[in-house]
Amino acid sequence: MGDAVLFDARDDGIAVITINRPDARNALGREVREGLFAAWDRFEGDPALRVAILTAAGDKAFCAGGDLKEMADLRLTVPPRGMFPVPGDNIEVTKPTIAAVNGVAFAGGWLLAQACDLCVASTAARFAITEAKVGRGSPWAAPLIHMIPQRIMMEIILTGRPITAARAYEIGLVNRLAEPEDLMAEALALAAEIVENAPLSVLAGKETVGLATEMGRTAALRAARHAWERAYRSADAQEGPRAFAEKRKPQWRGE
């Protein structure tokens, strides 16, 4: 992973992935991209880790997007699909992810926040899809239509104008706001709420949201029933009601 991306595997089942190029506004240069690919792969492959928080070093930028100097040097046209690490697109991440946005999330930074399942933002954060201002493209923004209203999405993409964290919360892009000094505490609290729940139910819940987003009602219901089979038949499905009846905390096994 190197120094460009830091990985903290905590004892509580939470992984904290930190983009560590504050001097470059945490832009998505080659080292950061490679580090993020490795970090997501490590998180997905470690059964002890159940939720990941993606954040960045410093208090100015979560990620300012792609490295425009690198793009100019490469004379980049259409980016290869595997160029940028995007969970849910070119990376499989079945476990929940949270973006903790500590500063500007522009272009590729918006993409990273959008690709996470949940988003906690500093009140000082700003979001923008700025590609139109530099002649680049934002095809990755297509799934945004399932998060925010169409006319708001249209204005954001066509103008490239930043929106505040409060506005991002208002339109549904952000789940929770926190003062800058409380950002990680808020993100960790949200992650801890998820870790408290039965692992297989959490995985099936995430899959169900994806199915409901991509399918019509009848097909989504059918697919969701199948997605929940493993959780229903698990030992945890018996442990939960038993723990409730015995007035104790459940001991999840993830099986």
UniProtKB/TrEMBL annotation:
Region annotation (Disordered) maps to 236-255
What is an example of a GO molecular function annotated in this UniProt entry? Answer: lyase activity
An annotated GO BP: fatty acid beta-oxidation
InterPro entries in the cross-refs: ClpP/crotonase-like_dom_sf, Enoyl-CoA_hydra/iso, Enoyl-CoA_hydra_C
Q: What is its EC number?
A: 4.2.1.-
Indicate, by first and last residue, each region the UniProt record lists as having compositional bias (Basic and acidic residues).
244-255
Class of this enzyme:
lyase
| Gene3D superfamilies according to UniProt | 2-enoyl-CoA Hydratase, Chain A, domain 1 (3.90.226.10), Lyase 2-enoyl-coa Hydratase, Chain A, domain 2 (1.10.12.10)
Which UniProt keywords are present, listed alphabetically?
Lyase
Name the protein family: Belongs to the enoyl-CoA hydratase/isomerase family.
Protein name as catalogued: Carnitinyl-CoA dehydratase
